Amino acid sequence: MTTDKFKLALLPIASTVFGVFVLMLIVFFSASLPIFQKEGLAIYTTNVWKAVEEGEEFYGVLSAIYGSVYTSVIAILIALPLSIGFAVFVIDYAPKRLKEPLIIATDIMAGLPTILYGIWGAFVLVPLLKEFVMKPLYEHLSFIPLFSYPPITGYSYLSAGVLLAIMVTPFASSIIREAYRMIPKVYREGAYALGLTRYEATKVLLGYIKPAILAGTLLAFGRAIGETVAVSLVVGNTFNISPSLFAPGYTISSLIANQFGNAFIYKYMPSALFAAGLALFVIGLAVNVIGLILLRRWKHA
Q1: CA 296, CA 63: separation in Å to the nearest integer?
Q2: What is the mean pLDDT of each run of 10 residues along the chain (301 residues)?
Q3: pTM of the model
C-alpha cells in the first residue's frame, strides 16, 4: 500500500474522532439552550440553586465551577512535584531491585476504581487531615483567609484536592518518568563531565523534558477536574464560594452526579446540568489549547 492510500485509509478514523468531539459539543450546547434562554449567562455568574416543582426555578453553577478549578489547582500543586520527584528517584536513585516494584505499584494505583479512592478518602484521609492538618492550622493561623473556615466536618476543598493529587500522581509520573528515562546517556555523561553535582545535573536534564512535564500536568489536570465519585464523597457538596481550604464546596462533576437522578422532575434542571457540563467541556478545552500553544513555543524556541 502506498503512502497516499494509507493516508486515505486513516482519514475515516481521524474524521470519526473529530466528529464525535463536535457531536458532543453540539449535544451539550443544544441541551443547554432552555436554561440559556431563561437565564442567559447568569447560569455561570450566580450561586443560586433554586429547584422547585411549582414556581420560579433558578440555577447558578458558579460555586461548582469555582470548586472544580480550585480543587484541581490544589491537586496539581501537590501532584506535580511528587510526580517529578518520583520519576527522578526511580530512574536515578532507586536500587535496581526496587525500580520495577515501584513502577508496578504506581501502575496499579492508576488502574484502581475511583470509588475505592473515594471510600478511603472519606473514612481515612478526611479524619487524618481534619485532626492533624486543618485543626492545628485553624487554631494558629485562622487570621489567614486560606485557613479561616472552621474545619467542622473535614469535608472540604483541601480534602478533595489532596485526594485528587493522590489519584492523578500515577498518570503524571508515568509520562514524566518515561521521558526522563529516554534522555540520551551522552547528556548525563556530559553533565557530569562538566563537573555538575547530581542535583545540578538533574536540574539540567529536567529542562530537556519540559514538554513531557507539561503533558503530564495537562493529563493530571484533566483527570482531576473531571473526577466525580471520589470527589463527591469528600468535597462536602455545598453551594459555597470561599477562599478557605477548609470550607466545603461543590465541583461540576459532583453536582451533576448528585442532582442528575432527580433532575427530570424539574423543568429546567436537566438543561442547567448540561450547561454545567458544557462549562467543564470548555474549561478542559481551554487548558489543552493553552498547553498546545506552550508546547509549540518550546519547540520553536
Answers
A1: 34
A2: 72 84 92 94 93 84 95 95 94 89 91 93 96 96 95 95 96 91 88 86 89 87 89 94 95 93 90 95 86 73 56
A3: 0.92
